[in-house]
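It would be a great kindness if you could assist me with a short task in structural biology. I am sending you one protein, given as its amino acid sequence and as whole-number tokens for its backbone shapes. I would ask you to consider whether the tokens describe a fold that such a sequence might reasonably adopt. The full record is reproduced below for your convenience.
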Amino acid sequence: MTENSGSARSGETGKARTEPRPVSAAALAFGRALRQRRQAKGLALRELQKLAYVDKSLISRAERGLTPPSAEFAEACDRALEAGGTLIVLAEAARAEPYVHLPAPPGHFVGREEQFALLDEKVLGGPANVVFVAGPPGVGKTALVLKWANRRQEEFDSVLWSDLRGYAAGSPAQPADILDDLLRCVGVRPDRVPAEEHMRLALLRGLLRGQRTLVVLDNALDSHQVRPVLPGTPDTTVLITSRRRLSGLVVGSGAVQVSLEPLEDLEATRLMADLIGDERAAGDPEGVCRLVQLCAALPLAVNIAAERVATHPHQSVGDLAGELVAEGRRLELLAVDDDAVGVRAAFSWSYRALDADTARMFRLLGLHPGPRFTSGAAAALSGLPEHDARRLVDKLVQAYLVQQVGARYYRFHDLLRVYAAEEAATEQWRDERQAAVSRLTHWYLYAANAASWTLTPARDHHIDLGPAPEGVEPIRFDTFDEAYIWCASEMPSITGVARMALDHGLYEIGWRLPVELFDYHLLGRPWQTWISSHDVAIESAKAGGDLGGLAWSAINLAEAHRRRGDLDRAHELFGQAVEISEEIGENPSLGWALVGLGNIAHEREEYAEAVRLAEQSVEVNTRIGYQLGEATARVHLGRAYRDLGERDLALEHGLRAFDAYAKDADQHGMGFALVPLARTCRRFGDPEHALEYCEQALTAYRNCGDVWGQADALDERGCALAELGHREEAMTVWRDALQLVMDLDDRKASVLRGRLEGTV
């Protein structure tokens, strides 16, 4: 930090920072919860030190978010403060690996001093909270903003970044995706990102409040894409890049524009000299000038052309410029304007200079439908071992044809992606293209299947896909976290991959890929991908005439709509699934569809109808020997009987469900059965047994990492304590539950706040 880096807007210039920064938002959340628990117990730091056997200075630092809490520290404090595991869960989030945020600046950068000064003026010294850099494609908007943001990042408490994919292949990033990126930049774990868009924005605002923050939104399509994600907090500045003038933000948010044009010829020449070496540039100044002119002084084209020059040291720059002229003439009819001739020619010129294996990798990567890709996906596209694929992708990075984002991911500039996809689409590569699409879609299917097995290993609905096709190296996940993080990271690509499978006649993959991810959908609730991918799944199952696939796709899509509150659409889809499943013959899908209809009846307080449908599901699942379906149906049947006032039947079905889950050591299922049993006991005047069930449910949910489940169990535990007259203890438990769920589910959080305020 510099001495004058305080908030200029508040007039506090010239003040040095007196308090170190929190290591992450998640560490700060842990610290707040620790302080609240300690103060609620009336303990001073020294007193907690004696109870927990941890140093008071460490407690102080942890409460201020200045150090990520170790597992041992969190367990000691949780035990001493009787926090019921809340601090342990929050500590896990605080220790999570930081999410890659601001990418590194470009290695070679010249000029733009006027724009740097403008950004300094508008962002650091001006009143505007929104600044956007606008200019044509390839002009260097992203490079400018990354260079400036990396140079000035010490002026801010935090710098966040998201690629909005406004002009990339596939769909532009949706507000929920952008907010997910930003939340993960500030340390929020994937399983702690709220499902609802408005809750994501509220959480982001809460985390940024009181901090001087720069939010970089790269490659925006228009004002409509950006407006829903603007935090609007006083000390937050949003810096945007776009090809368009974002007039809507100028009017609605007081945004300020910084315009960017191609480099001046002298600047572009300096950039070329930096890239090819001063001595070589000085040896052929006319050739360098000609090359710069052919590239329209656009930095993207200059970088690519310079790399070609640098790798051909025995040819003169003038001769190489002549080759580019010839390439430009060949492509001239395809260009939309004079500048595009040079840019496209530079792409083509560089591509045709690649060795055969690297050129093949370049065009195949253009097929990937997502915003970014891993070396594993590159290996699948090319049919190569991953270490060989990574070597080729790294060569493309060196040639400025691909960009690396973080340690694991790569992406294209949108113009280069279009060029690569066009190359791959030519007739001469038809067989290569079909094989690559098959390998990539199979790779995603096998990864989703492996993740599903890892997320819910005790469940009996998983399928064995058999050996992977030749050229596909399936991913293996050793832990729940590995599988969960892969799913969360790949969500922006899933609908595109399913659509790719459908478009290429791979109908089974087109519906099975979204269906395989259903366990993750239940945990992570990525509503947009859940719904859009299953829309594609239904199309694919219909195109392939697969009734089983159609039934499962309809059931999963119906469940998304039910949880979103669209009961009419969910009822329609569940009804269709029942009809399809009955046509197939009794199978697990029929049982799930009946349970779904029963849940809708329950939400509509039609308890007798809920009982009838749940009983039908139990009967179907019992006849076909589907234990998971039977146990789940019995949980719902027990709930329905409880609300009909049938205590014995409610307990009978709930206990039978629990025993079935316990037999398979299905921790999530055990927790899922135990909380309704606790509610039944409390409903019929037995809060002591309710407390026992709640404790067992908490243990089960902790064992499988279900934070929402833990909050639900704590909620019911608080209700049982309140009925036993332990109001203060109940209030503490409800506060713990609210800490876990307040950023995940606003309906549950609202219930808990109501309990704390005495209105529920």
